[in-house]
Amino acid sequence: MRTIAFHLNCLVKGGAERVVSNLANKFAQEGYKVYVATEWYDENEFVLDERVTRVHVGLRKEDENKNRITKFFLRIKYLKQFMKEYHPDLLIAFAQRANYRALMAQKGTDVPVVISIRTNPTGHYDALSDKIQIKWLFPKAAGCVFQTTGQKEFFKPYLQDNSTIIINPINPKFFDVPFPAEREKAVVHHARIVDFKNQPMLIRAFVKVHKKHPDWVLRIYGDDSHDGTLEILKSLISENKAEDYIFLMGDSETLEKEIVKGRVYAFTSDWEGLPNSLLEAMALGMPIVSTDCPCGGPRTVMEDGVSGLLIPIKDEDALVDGLNKLIEDPELCERLGSEASKIKERANADAVFEQWKDYIELVLNRCGKN
């Protein structure tokens, strides 16, 4: 029986955590022995299959008052202990710090480590400390999973050569959702309310769109990240006296039913890894205006003019033009939405799992673990 382990900080509801929980559950269902090694537990987490074993590898109660450097090395020590005790055939690390920890803990074990890049490397992997750790640690990786070509091209050829690109699986509840008989004249957006999503640009742009199309509204769905962005959005709505046509809807457990009530979808991030919200909107068959943000997530899944409209980041005028174009051309909307919905062929859970499975088996065979 193959034994694989995933390592990440926790399973709180988020993009990487959803991918790990889905993969762990699917591998367990396929007969693999699966471990998920996490640094801590959280209240609002994804649920694991009962056949998946979760192991705490983070700090312990007696470590709380120790200094930062000591805690850093203890995290590596506890992960190494896990690798030696449970001895998985392969450890797959998710996200930046987990990548570093896994490769440090690998020394003295014979457990190969696959790392994964889940965000824009520019701004996250280019500080001096990152450059030092990457040069020292990344050559030790048995492989790497990227989400976009832009991520892959950021790193040296030695990492590219042993890598693959696998996009995120889409939650199946976003597949085959029927449009309501009467759809609202509404632009919709759903994402966490946080600075890099640039929802303020969306509000400013829609104020201009509304002057031309006063019967249209904007609905923004998403929970507050508490970084001050929500307060900025509220202030913009108030300043523009837009309370009657721009609505902050908060989070929703039935987004798949809410998004399709609108006719146009807007995505405005300044940077991303591979955004789940964009994939979900595509799966719903929404006509989309999206920023062509680094590190290439939208461009990886969307073709400009075919399955959506791509615009430069932080270009408010281009966003206004794109929204007006879709509002005024129902035939274009239908064509773009129909093409966008085909993403489910590439990003359904089974298709993504098979890509992960094939790559994991390739790495294991390359490492002599037949």
UniProtKB/TrEMBL annotation:
Task: Provide the alphabetized UniProt keywords.
Answer: Transferase
Residue ranges of domain Glycosyl transferase family in the record: 178-342
User: Which Pfam family is an annotated match for this chain, by its short name?
Assistant: Glyco_transf_4
The record's annotation in Gene3D superfamilies points to: Glycogen Phosphorylase B
Which molecular-function annotations from GO does this UniProt entry contain?
Answer: glycosyltransferase activity
Organism equals Butyrivibrio fibrisolvens DSM 3071
| Record protein name field | Glycosyltransferase involved in cell wall bisynthesis
Domain Glycosyltransferase subfamily 4-like N-terminal, chain residue ranges per copy: 14-172
